[in-house]
Amino acid sequence: MKFPRASEPLGPGAPTPISCMHQRLKDIGLGVGIIGFFLFTLFILIPAEIFVPSSIKYRALSPAFFPRIVSILMVFLGTILVLQSFLVTSRPTKEGEKEPESVSDEEEIEALSRRPTKGKIIRIGAGAGLMFLYYGLIHIFGIVLTSILMMPLFIWLYDERRWKLMFPLSVLLAFSLYYFFAKVALISLPKGSLFQ
Amino acid sequence: MFSHPQNYLAIFLGVGIGIFIGAIPGFTGAMGVALALPFTFYLHPITAILFLVGIYKGAIYGGSITAILIKTPGTPAAACTVLDGYPMAKKGQAGKALGMALYASVVADFVSNLSLILLAAPIASFALRFGPPEFFALITFSLTIIAGVSGKSLIKGIIAGGLGLIAATIGLDSVYGSTRFAFESVNLMGGLNFIPVLIGLFAIPEILNEFGKRQGVRPKVFDLGQQRLRLSEFKRSLKTIIRGSIIGVIIGAIPGIGGAPAAFLSYNEAKRGSKHPDTFGQGEIEGVAAAESGNNGVCGATLIPLLTLGVPGDVITAILLGAFMIHDLKPGPILFQKNIDVIYGIFVGIMLSSIAMLIIGKFSIRLFSRIGKVPVSFLFPAVLVLCVYGTYAVDNKMFDILVMLVMGLIGYFMLLFEIPPAPFLIAFILGPMFEDNMRRSLLLSKGDPVIFFRTAICWVFLGLTVLSIWLIVQRNLRGRKETRGSS
After folding, report:
1. ipTM
2. Searching chain B, which residue's CA lies closest to the CA of residue A154?
3. Are B290 and B270 in contact (CB under 8 A)?
4. CB–CB contact A120 B214 (8 Å)
5. pTM of the complete model
6. CB < 8 Å to A126, chain B
């Protein structure tokens, strides 16, 4: 299976640079997400998931008091972020005047390098997926064997193809860490359901 | 207590590992200390802390190696070293630049350690007068350090801090024992462990981000060259180094500023005071001396607020605070009363760390100069395996690995939305202290908030908080005006 290169563009056609507008949309999205999540926390999660004893005399001593204050603060901050993004977008520019937040060449290049491309998304998604698979397999095969199996996969995902180096390194690292934690630090490492 | 051989070994090993980590672009000192933390649980507290402090100090110096050789600062604090270090490398003077970076770092580190030893005890004895309201006021002020580590956007920094505060409330409430956001899960009732959160936020997003990059494109690494630093050149730069060290100490003692601003300030002062300022930026050896003395001068001084008040000044000291807590030690004035042996052990050890840096740096400069060539395709997967073993070892819980991975995903999305992770971590650590002191104060006063204004100490810290917020807002408004003006 061949993974797409990191530099591969998301769709057909030439890549377009991340514009200021894109950044603002991202900020608006973030702000709305923050407001939504913390309103949900404030009105659903806190009443449902924080048990408040009836014996509390002062409101400020309630276990829900601090999370509530933080949630209100976050809703406020999310609102500021959204308003800030809107205000910057709607600020009128005089004729011939440059966009107020136009980015420098270096920032543009940096933004381009962070641009999500199809290749990047697939590789990062695969990497994240493998990490959770790693976690899942530890339950079955134990930490040592899973590490020996998974490390070459991660190395492969980083475009490395020197198999003769990959496997010995994986075995060496997994057993060195096993030796330190199990023999020196006397920790019982997960053996996995298969070997228990 | 200090003279045990394992303490010497911890310092030398810590500094060596720190230099190695600092010299790898993309790895930060915070990441290094976070990854090393699980390996220290089984050590004596002094040995563990010295090992971690060694990594911290080594990483700050190590950052200069790739800054000079490949124009990529290994750590943010070394960004200023690029200005003159890289032009020197291009001229074939990389060996000379690295030599100056080493000696300036060692001198600054020594000055910084000395300031810690001289200032810590008086501050700690003053802090003995603190009760819950005073600590509440102090932590309120400390939370303003979030502004210092917020990066480009203050709002996003505060949002990260808010997320950290909420994450810290998961688990059992400290006063009534009620569950908060536990969703009837036994694992969540214990709260989120500090180390999985830390590793998840600082290591996993970098590993994920690296998947998206094109590998195999190796940077050009300059050779050390034949020229070495001469004594006359060092003597000529000594004034700059001392000045940079003092700037580093002052900035390091103030929570929330960090190594990079200290390096730039020291560099600007050196340039201003120089007879030939036009050579700065073109391979001036004094520029390297100024930058490196500035950023290393911070190291010892950042431990002043940590050890005396229990307040972390930056991300690494926040991690060190966690390390103290893991060993059942609570940094602050009480530590000076109850565990003075630990304090003395740390003091002796950190003085020795300057010597360790000198020895390791001097004899392995050629080896460390090759670190830039190490392929990340092997390094990052190895780090991931290390993260998994280390996280599991914290509490022997598979759940912690899951927390690390989930925090890693959150951290990656924070990276995408340009939300800095440092405020999250600082708020995650300070949050419980803040809430606990607030509620204990209110319990004492039977709910009367006047208790927060009962002493002059409270007034001073609350006043400093207001002043700090005012300055932050002013700085932001000024920055925005300048952006508009320049466009």
Report:
1. 0.82
2. B381
3. yes
4. no
5. 0.81
6. 211
